[in-house]
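To close the section, here is one more complete example, presented without commentary so you can practise reading it yourself. The ligand is cytidine-5'-monophosphate.
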Amino acid sequence: LPLNGKKVMVTAGPTYEAIDPVRFIGNHSSGKMGFALADELAKLGADVTLIAGPTAQKSNAYVKRIDVVSAEEMLNACTSIFSETDITVMCAAVADYRPKIIASQKIKKQESALVLELEKTVDILATLGKNKRESQILVGFALETNDEENYAKGKLEKKNLDLVVLNSLNDQGAGFKADTNKITIFNKALERTLFELKSKTEVAKDICTAILKIIK
Ligand code: C5P
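Output:
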């Protein structure tokens, strides 16, 4: 199989950032795309570790799974294995901000408005991009609502990626919760490949094909 002996890391799902013991800030990521990718990469022979945020998805027995909750936990899980991985695909919808202070007790309802101060989380993908060796392949995702191609290309360069997979929320049937997705892939040469609307399993196969093309 083409990926025999390759160590692959995939992130999937959302992250939850605690506000207090019962509340969190999250997002609508279902984890479907990342789980489908982990599956397809394993079918190609890779030794896959899936780092998953909170999701209802079931992973297959031949995928090693590490469950995490917050962006910080995902960062720690990713950085602990990144140096040993040949291919990394960052599909997770990681929170960009988290509450600066996590209340130790449930915050009580009050008369006035509640103000939460948020601080930035670490950009995991950019962190890995900085530490990437020449032989490693790093793939990121971009989900945009406007000027999407330029933002996607910007991410490819800024985060030192080999491929960026763009999915636009402007496309019907694409995005977070759907079983289908419509993607555009940019490679390092900024060459663009457009794909039709497909099931996330078929999309995962297309992404694998693009990865196989650039394997060094
Ligand atoms: O910059 P933006 O968040 O749009 O980039 C999306 C890409 O970066 C995705 O591949 C996502 O998994 C990754 N990301 C990350 N850590 C963050 C934010 C995004 O790994 N804190």
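Once you have examined the tokens, check your reading against these statements. The chain has a mean pLDDT of 95. Helices lie at 32-43, 71-81, 124-131, 148-158, 200-214.
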